[in-house]
Amino acid sequence: MIRFPDLSAPLAPTERQWLEGEGLRRAVSKLPRAQAEAVVMHFYLDMRIEDVAASLGLSAAGVKSRINRALHQLRGSVDRKSS
Question: Looking at the 3D structure of the chain, how many domains does it have?
Fold first, then answer.
């Protein structure tokens, strides 16, 4: 099941920036393809870990590992930009 945020209420400027997320999209696009696929499927498409695993032909542990590595890289990218 794909869930979309409720966009009927007006958004605060920071929420709008986050949803538009150009910087985040750029950072995700720089991830290795396998990690980017797992991140997009889980966080953007709101798929459960088990569903991502089935789609990618991996175990749930394998998907969690890819997502964990990706988040580690993304956090590092955000830390470098904010300093």
Answer: 1
